[in-house]
Amino acid sequence: MANCVDTLEAVLGSVDCKLDSILYQLEHKLCQIETPDGGDGQPIVMSCSQMITDLKDIQRDVQAIRSQRKELQELEKQLSDQLWHKCKGVEKDVLKLKRTVNYE
Question: Given a cut of 80, is residue 28 above it in pLDDT?
Answer without folding.
Answer: no
